[in-house]
Amino acid sequence: MKSVQNEPGESPACLRLHTEHEDRLYWVCWLDEVIQTSNTVCSGRNACMSLSSSWSAPPPQARAHLVGICGAGMKALAEFLFDSGWSVSGCDGDPDPASLHSLTRLGIDIQKGHSAAHLDGNPDLLIYSPAVNRENVDRAAAAGRGVQQISYVDALSQLSRRHQTVGIAGTHGKSTTTAMLGQILKTAGRPASVLCGGESVSAGRSGWAGSSDTLILEACEFRQHFLELSLRIGCLLGIEADHFDCYPTLPDAERAYQQFVRKILREKHTEALGEAPRHHLPRTLIVRSDCSVTSRILQEETGRITTFSLQDSTADWQAVQRRRMAGRLHFRIQRKAAVSEEISLAIPGLHNVQNALAAAACAEELGVSLQDIARGLREFSGLRRRFEIRGQWRGAVVVDDYAHHPTEIRATLTAAREHFPKKKLICLFQPHQLSRTEALLAEFAAALSLADKIYLLPVYAARENSGFRQIELSRDLVQRITIPASLISALDRVWGTVQTDADTDAVLLTLGAGSLSRIHYEDFERTE
Fold first, then answer.
1. Minimal CB count within 10 Å: which of 176, 219, 381, 404?
2. Which residues contact 290 (CB under 8 A, 6 or more apart)?
3. How far apart are CA 171 and CA 189, in angstroms?
4. 329 to 157, 253, 319, 387: CA distances (angstroms)
5. How far apart are CA 394 and CA 205, in angstroms?
6. Which contiguous run of DSSP H or E holds residue 253?
7. Residue 16 pLDDT exceeds 50
8. Cα-flanking dihedrals φ and ψ of residue 78, to 5°?
């Protein structure tokens, strides 16, 4: 980011900043001639409105319009802004029905599709998702009317500077760990603001504004977005090959994560432009010590580093006395010589014990006691689409999960096998992205073969030109799976195809990050 000269007619109270990465402008106002800034919305060159340091006290009747509002991150941001006193509106080209329901229940006005009419009344700020380009009609209308625009990533960047921010990074487990940490702080009487990629089962929300100055968010590696954040605490859950449209090889991803780690450990903290001067937490990195890739990028790093692990007996945070009882995992957290009360997680899977350790380590850095950490984890009820038991259909238990990477599929199916040891596992999987499916084809086949029967849908080609490859690639995957497997050509054929497998001896799992979850919400034919 670099400062540039104000154009004629611009308010002298505003410093005009240029974001080289996105090639756009946004504004920061100087207050009291000190390095203490507030976020700013400029409607036209001469109108400048200062917002509070944490976006928690917008000007009266301030309105934010979010383009792509039903995306996971945008939904959380919309809910946070709503809690903070903003009037929020939004639109989405293809709104997810569950997100649409959650947001409209709050009273947020959402339009399907895009139109210049959405800018009627001139909102004070337009925020757009990474999937929305500058040719979008809402954005074009905003530009023509002088409405300030920032990206979702820039919004998070600004928020992270105005809070004590904890960022949860890594290939898997970000949403669950973020939500767990939010629950721990709430239980401890220190409710934080949270921006999570999954919806809390208990709250029915993905984002909310807390009463403390702590912000917990997902530090996503997609397009190196996590490098835009200003973090006091960074938590790295592990690194694997993924997002092949951004990182064609694992070394490409390693380089991005190394920058993320160095940004936390090596940058000397100063009260830089946009950062709140009251932050005194030491910069800390919390990592999974048994991840070989993470260990590799930390070889030359020094600083405040805390470790957690289910396997490494030298890690600072460990889960001990692990046992299964009545379908639930029980364990205690060990931190040096201290051992917590027994914890029983409401969500299955050893991977969630690992997520709990990461959340616990973050919570201690924020001053939460081991006793309150254990209480918070016991009260955590889980997220939608993270081993979410949706009920029964024709006698079969129906479980919905976001798993879309071989490691996640393996973890979910292993958890299902442990949770339902006497039932057969019928898995419906919609691969997500051609590049990921093609690169990890053998790994997908091995992971899916842990079930008893597989139904595959065509690949969900997010951000890709697909042609006929969506079906061809899924058909290729079917051939590689070592258990009975077949292809279902479309969502509207799912229930009719799997009904012969649905009985009291079965668990029906729907896995994927694309559109498959819509079969639980939309009016697809489903015979009871």
1. 381
2. 309, 310, 311, 312, 315
3. 30
4. 37, 33, 11, 14
5. 30
6. helix 250-265
7. no
8. -60, -40
Task: Note the pLDDT tens digit of each residue in 68-97.
Answer: 999 999 999 999 999 999 999 999 998 988
Structural domain boundaries, residue 116 = 2-156
Residue 313 phi, psi (nearest 5)? -75, -10
DSSP string, 409-442: HHHHHHHHHHHSTTSEEEEEE--B-HHHHHHTHH
- The kind and range of the H/E element at 39 are strand 34-42
Please state whether 234 falls in left (phi above 0), alpha (psi between -120 and 50) or beta: beta
Q: Which two tokens stand for residue 298?
A: 């930390």
Positive/negative CA dihedral, 362, 364, 368, 371: positive
What pLDDT digit, counting tens, does each position of 111-147 carry? 999 999 999 988 999 999 999 999 999 999 999 999 9
In the chain, the amino acid numbered 155 is A
Least confident of 330-344, 353-367, 461-475, 495-509: 461-475
What number of CA atoms fall less than 13 Å from residue 70's CA on the CB side? 19
With a CB cutoff of 8 Å and minimum separation 6, the contacts of 393 are 502, 508, 526, 528
Same domain, 442 and 363: no
What is the CATH classification number for the domain harbouring 426? 3.90.190.20
Spatial distance between the Cα atoms of 54 and 33, rounded to a whole number of angstroms: 19
* 163: nearest Cα among 46, 275, 68, 80: 275
Contact 303, 283 (CB under 8 A): yes
- Regarding beta strands 87-92 and 63-67, do their DSSP bridges make them parallel or antiparallel, or are they unpaired? parallel
Which residue has 């500058």 as its token pair?
134
**Beta strand extents in 68-206 (DSSP E only):** 87-92, 109-112, 125-128, 148-151, 164-169, 193-195
Type and span of the H or E element at 102? helix 97-105
The answer to whether 485 and 455 have CB atoms below 8 angstroms apart is yes
Q: Are 414 and 427 in contact (CB under 8 A)?
A: no
d(CA 68, CA 337): 48
> Which tokens is 417 given?
């096998």
Write the DSSP string, 147-175: -EEEEHHHHHHHHHHTSEEEEEESSS-HH
Rounded to whole angstroms, the maximal C-alpha distance in the chain is 74
Shared-domain flag, residues 191 and 333: yes
3-state secondary structure of 258: helix
Residue 180 resides in a domain: yes
